[in-house]
Amino acid sequence: MPRSDEVTPNPDNKTNSPTGGRALRDWVKQVARLTRPDAVVWCDGSEAEKDRLTRQAVAEGILIELNQAKRPGCYLHRSNPNDVARTEQLTFVCTPNKKDAGPTNNWSDPAQTYTKLRGWLGGSMRGRTMYVVPYVLGPLGSPFSKVGIELTDSIYVVLNMRIMTRMGAAVLDQLGESRDFNRGIHCTLDLNPERRLICHFPQDNTIISVGSGYGGNALLSKKCFALRIASSLGREEGWLAEHMLILGLESPNGETTYVAAAFPSMCGKTNLAMLTPPAEFQGWKVHTIGDDIAWLRVGPDGGLWAVNPENGYFAVAPGNSEKSNLNAMRMLQHDSIFTNVAMTPDGDVWWEGMDTPAPDGLLDWQGRPWKKGSPDKAAHPNSRFTTPMRNNPAWSPHADDPQGVPISAIIFGGRRATTVPLVLESTDWTHGVFMGATMGSETTAAAAGAVGVLRRDPMAMLPFCGYNMGDYFAHWLKMGIAIKKLPRVFMVNWFRKGADGDFIWPGYGENMRVLKWMLDRIHGRAGGRQTPVGIVPNQADLDLKGLDLPASTARDALAINPAEWKAELESAGEFFEKIGPTMPKELKERRQAILKSIHDDAPVQQVAASR
Ligand code: OXD
Ligand code: MN
Q1: Is the omega angle on the peptide bond into residue 506 within 30 degrees of 0, that is, cis?
Q2: Which residue is closest in CA terms to ligand 1's atom 3?
Q3: Is the CB of 446 under 6 A from ligand 1?
Q4: pLDDT value at position 503?
Q5: How do residues 280-323 score in pLDDT, each as one tens digit?
């Protein structure tokens, strides 16, 4: 797209010396003829370019300069209030056959959608500049990596893409004359929700997003390419693109074990990825590879290897404090873009959950004076920061390793007030896939719509899987055959609530205790007890020293309630029915087998440390 001969050249079109291969130049010209920008600017990723665009963004009111003495290189952006989260109802997978998008995606016919979008894009960049943003997902030169080009009329998008991806002239060198690049077109239009659409064309490796400036809709490298399009490419090419953080855990004796973990949006992925271990875990270190997306392939040793395709973090601000995420607070000290947070009178940022109380004279996320005690939040619940991954004190240089890092465990987690214990281990790969496929979570403010409603969110990919969910499950099962050294699979729940309605588990850094049990399982050092739904640690298997947690609370955190699990599996069965004919029979059979084995007086079986 656009495959249009109807468009006429724009004689006024100025461009700074276009580079890149022929296919790229032709496509850029074609889009410029359609959208008719006043100028086309090829981004080179240089510091000079960043300074120039930042100055321009400040002059145009797109960015507000924050207090440079307190936060050098930091800026604030305020979105249109109608455009503050992903819009799943306006996100489409446009495959030639509807069944290839599957029952969990919105689908529209590619030809009709191209025609409609061509109409909306015609002349849409008049009076504006079209930026050509070349980027690579994954380390430059890595066999994992893929090139994308985003054409956008938003400086905010360019400046964010600069942080989120490896962006600039070097990408064009990697691309050369190749036609193999993701084509992304982003046009802000007038931010009218009636003319907002985020459309994916996996068969053309193309994305068109119009009418929104929100990160998840407009930074096309992120959810659109690195997840929706890449998951579809991964299926064809035999790998996985997942909504997962990647972290390395180094023990005091210097052994580093890498894990990848899938959680829905706003369930603490960024926190977990850069967690600070509790004081009792002297000598343990956490190394962040990524906080949101993992691309996973079978490595030459037959194990599963992962890269983080991104170069920065675009994460939720509220709730971050020195207590909950010290590394995040440090990395936000400089060179970051904040979106929709509150601003203090001295030009600093503030959000709910920060260490300091709201100062007098605070401006809320829309720039309005905010009064203490107001029922409205000062920072939008989905307000964000964009920050380079190298800002993170826990950043691992292995994030740049072309071959990625070896993954010893996959963790699935959701936000569940009931049913799901603190941690569960699967008994085999199919069971692990089953755990991921039946994941449920309560909805959050990361997407427009009701918050706190339980929905099935398999592998945390419900909004991000670019093809039929049943085929996706089958692909996961197939990967289990291709991977010769299989990672263990776990499920966690940091969000279980007690009878008083409070969270049972303290979460944040204390999650290290759960990770430690996983490592001990991986290395054959810890046991557990077998339940019909998986292996759960005994209280004695978890390292709880120094944690003020009554034994009865620990028991509640680990409890398996048969009645709740029966209801859970019934609900999972309804979801499997919704997937329809592509739903793999292995997973349906596993559900039935587990359901059958759940009864109130099932004997407790201890599980030995090594399998
Ligand atoms: C995100 C999301 O922005 O999942 O990462 O919504
Ligand atoms: Mn995410």
Answers
A1: no
A2: 216
A3: yes
A4: 95
A5: 999 999 999 999 999 999 999 999 999 999 999 999 999 999 99
Continuous segment of H or E residues that includes residue 490: strand 488-492
120, 177: one domain: yes
The pLDDT assigned to 600 comes to 74
Q: What is the pLDDT of residues 434-475, one digit of tens each?
A: 999 999 998 888 888 888 888 999 999 999 999 999 999 999
Nearest ligand (C-alpha, residue 382):
1
- From the CA of 85, give the closest atom in ligand 1: 6
CA distances from 555 to 288, 363, 566, 595 (A): 31, 45, 20, 23
- Distance of alpha carbon 200 from the chain centroid: 17
Tell me the catalytic residues.
Answer: 267
**46-101 pLDDT, tens digit each:** 999 999 999 999 999 999 999 999 999 999 999 999 999 999 999 999 999 999 99
Q: Per residue in 347-367, is it b (16+ CB within 10 Å) or e — as a string?
A: bbbbbbebeeebeeebbbbbe
Q: In angstroms, rounded to a whole number, what is the distance separating the alpha carbons of residues 405 and 407?
A: 6
**C-alpha span between 317 and 408 (Å, rounded):** 30
- Same domain membership, residue 247 and residue 226: no
Q: What is the pLDDT of residue 141?
A: 86
- Give residue 225 CA to ligand 2 midpoint distance, Å: 13
Alpha-carbon torsion angle 597, 599, 605, 609, nearest 10: 60
Residue 382 Cβ contacting ligand 1 at under 6 Å = no
> What does the pLDDT read at residue 609?
87
Q: What is the mean pLDDT of residues 23-32?
A: 96
How far does the centroid of ligand 2 lie from the alpha carbon of residue 159, in Å?
19
- Find the CATH number of the domain harbouring 166: 3.40.449.10
Domain count, the chain: 2
Q: How far is the CA of 509 from the centre of ligand 2 (A)?
A: 20
Residues 6 or more apart from 606 whose CB is under 8 A from it? 527, 528, 529, 530, 538
Segment 263-269 mean pLDDT: 92
- Domain boundaries, position 468: 241-311+396-607
pLDDT at 456: 95
Q: Which ligand is nearest to the CA of 313?
A: 1
* 86 within ligand 1 shell (Cβ under 6 A): yes
- Quote the pLDDT of residue 610: 72
Residue nearest to atom 4 of ligand 1 (CA): 265
3-state helix, strand, coil in the chain (%, to 5): 30, 25, 45
* Dist. CA 393–CA 227, nearest whole Å: 26
Q: Is residue 554 domain-resident?
A: yes
pLDDT of residue 2: 38
**Burial of residue 311, with CB atoms counted within 10 A of its CB: 0-12 exposed, 13-18 middle, 19 or more buried:** buried
In this structure, is residue 345 part of a structural domain?
A: no
Q: Which atom of ligand 1 sits closest to the CA of residue 292?
A: 5
At 16 the pLDDT is 65
- Measured in degrees and rounded to the nearest 5, phi and psi for residue 82 equal -85, 10
124 DSSP assignment? T
Q: What is the pLDDT of residues 544-566, one digit of tens each?
A: 999 999 999 999 999 999 999 99
Assign 360 to helix, strand or coil: coil
